Every structure is written in C-alpha cells, then in structure tokens.
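Anyone? Bumping this.
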Amino acid sequence: MLKIIFNYLVFPGFLFSAFLGLMTSWFDRKITARIQWRKGPVWYQNFLDILKLFYKETILPTQAKFSFFLSPFLGLCAVVIVGTILGRLLINPLESFLGDLIVVIYLLVIPAIALILGASSSGNPLASVGASREIKLLLGYELPFILSILVVIIKSNSIKLNEIINQQMSSGSYIFSFSGAIAFLVALLCTQAKLGFVPFDVSEAEQEIMAGVLIEYSGLLLAIFKLMRAILFYIMPILLIVLFMGKDLSLGFLILKYLFLVILIILLKNTNPRLRIEQVLKFFWGPLSFLGIIAIILALLGL
Amino acid sequence: MNYLKLKSLTKSIWVFHAACSPCNNCDIEVLDLLTPRYDVERFGIVLVGSVRHADCLLVTGVPNYKTAERIKKLYAQAPKPCLVVAVGSCACGRIMFRESYNSPCNLDEIIPVDVYIPGCPPKPEAMIAGIVKLINKIKGVR
C-alpha cells in the first residue's frame, strides 16, 4: 500500500515526472532561444515560474462554475497516472497489466477535456472560442493517432505494453519496418497537436485569441495547468519510444532516444507557422488518416 | 522561504503590454527587448497575452478619456502583486499632450506606478536599467 502511494506521488509519479517535465520544458525554451540566436533562460527558470504562480493571487471570475476550479486537477491527475504507468513499465516490465495501452490512450484524452471544461466554464468569450477550437482539434488528431497505434497492436498482436516491448526486443524496433515508419510519422505529428505546439496550437494562439483556453486562469490554477502541460511533454516522447523504438531500453539508450524525439518535436515547433483550424482538420482527416490506413494495410500484409 | 519568494517573484516577471493610446514608437522599442541583441528572456521576462497571467503592467502612451477607464479596469483584473511600469515620456508625464482636450489626467493619477522610464522613445538599455531598479526596489536594496 505504502509502495503504491510512493509510486504515485514520488518516484515515477508526480514529483519525478513533474521534475522531468519542467526540465524538458526548459530544454524546449533553451533550444528555441538558441535557434533564434538568443541566450535563453537558466535551467531552473520553469521551476521559478511555477513557484511564482503559487505566490500570486488566484482570481475566480464571478461567472465561473465549480468545474473552473476542478478541471486543472482532473488533467493533472490523468497525466500523473500515465506517468506512473509508463515509469513502472520501464523500471520493471513485468508489472504491466492487460489492456494498459487502452488505459493510457483514454487517459491521454483527459488533459484536452480538462482544458475544454475549464475554458467553457470560465464565461469568457475568447476562452469559449479556444474551447471550441480545442474540441475540433481533439476530434481531428484522435483518429490518426489511434490508427497509428492500431499498427503497433496489429504488429505485436497484443494490447499489453509489456508484450509490445518484448516483441520489439526479439524482432527489432517497429520504426524500422515500412508500416512502423509511416505510423511513427503519423503519431509524431499527432503528438505535436496533443501537446498544443506550434503548427497546431490554434486553441491557445497567443496572437489571435490571447491565451485562448487559459485566458481566465491565474495563480495556482494556471500553475497546475502549466505543470500538466509539462508532464504531458515528458510523457508523450516516452510513449512513442515504448510503442515504436522499444528495442533497447537500457538507461543510456533511453535517454538518447528521448533527447532525439524531444529535439525533433522542438524543431518541428520552431520551423512551422500556425495553421488555421480548418487547415488542421483537413490535414488530420485527409493526408494523415490516409497515411495511417496505408500503414495498417502494410502491417496486415506483414511489412 | 522569504528568499525563495523574492527570487521567484523577481526572476520570473511576466509582462502584459497595455498600449494606452501610444504613437507605437515605444511599442517597437519594447519589442526590441525580445530580439537576440537584448534577449530579456534570459532573466525570465516574457510577454503574455492575458492580463490574468501578468506580474507587470507595461503602459505606453497618454491615457485619454477612453483608455483611462480601460487601464483602470486592466489593473483591477490583474492578479496581485502586480507592478506597473510607465514607458516613454507620455506615460511618465504627458509632455506635450498636457493641455490636450482629450487627456484627462496623468497615468499615475489613475493607477499606482512603480517605475518611470522616460525617453521618446526610451532605449532598450534604459528599459533594462529601469527593470533592474524596480527589482532592487522590491528586494529593498539601495
């Protein structure tokens, strides 16, 4: 019992993933700054940001409903549980349970739902624009994301993360097969949308609708949303590694693969302009879903 | 504890840019602060889109009858502690618009101003010097 609480709150769970998530966010800011030929912030900048938000006043708008206060915690809980599941899996692969891939997919939808709930209960018109965009975005990227995960399920013939890793250890990473490579590309672009990063950050577009979904949040609640985003930024590359490049998961290789994926995401973020919402939907439901279906056919053919 | 509080409040200032009917000269100089040459993000200073996220209200321009109400509302909407920086001679003391028919009062008669950065427009270096003075004032250093 004590071990479970420790797992959820400290080691692979809340504290550990919050630390790694904030470090990854700092890495993002630093690399972005270097790409723009700037110096960039110090390594503990994101910790200071979160700490500062705890000291600030938290304003509840008069029109806000109960869910305005509750939704940040909902999102944070979901990502912490995913972080714990993935962390335990990497430490001790035998602790996997049947269908944990399905649980992870479901839990990864909750942060977006928390943002939508919070934004639409804040009573701000710009927040409601952001919420409607977030809903469309969610509908858009969820289809190709699940298609790309289906490829992994077909290839490994299992919905247990542990067996997916074992299969890759014996027969090589899925990314090096045709269907796996296409599915990885699709999943990477969906990750970008899930994280709310630049080509697909319509729901939070700072220049058009200010901060969109986060516009009414301040102080503690904003800090929790920022933490949620940071932990999500740490989880998604780990999930991609487990699903597509699980050949060698020793610590050194894990870190190398993780850094590679994070840098790839940051470069995608820095070299693309923002798409409009209807372009995003067309992109996800058109070419990307098509690629996903091709990958599934290839996987069924055994390529 | 107090050290951490001071450190986090002074090393991570999120700025909301409130353009209070300026001529846009100061705004362009403010944007210079984000470019590679000055890069204030290394001190944790970021421009934010929503006033609810702001720690610091950066005001440029002369308040007129319309913007005076707006700036008062903006200050009330910002979570406290919130600092106010007046950038440019207009925001500091209305200079040549003092006798103007549509300028009711100075900025510091509407909201409390913490630091004045004069100049038309002030240089980016002057703005950084102003922020340093502000941080020293918060820390109680002379």
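Late reply, but here is one note on the structure posted above: Chain A has one domain: 2-301.
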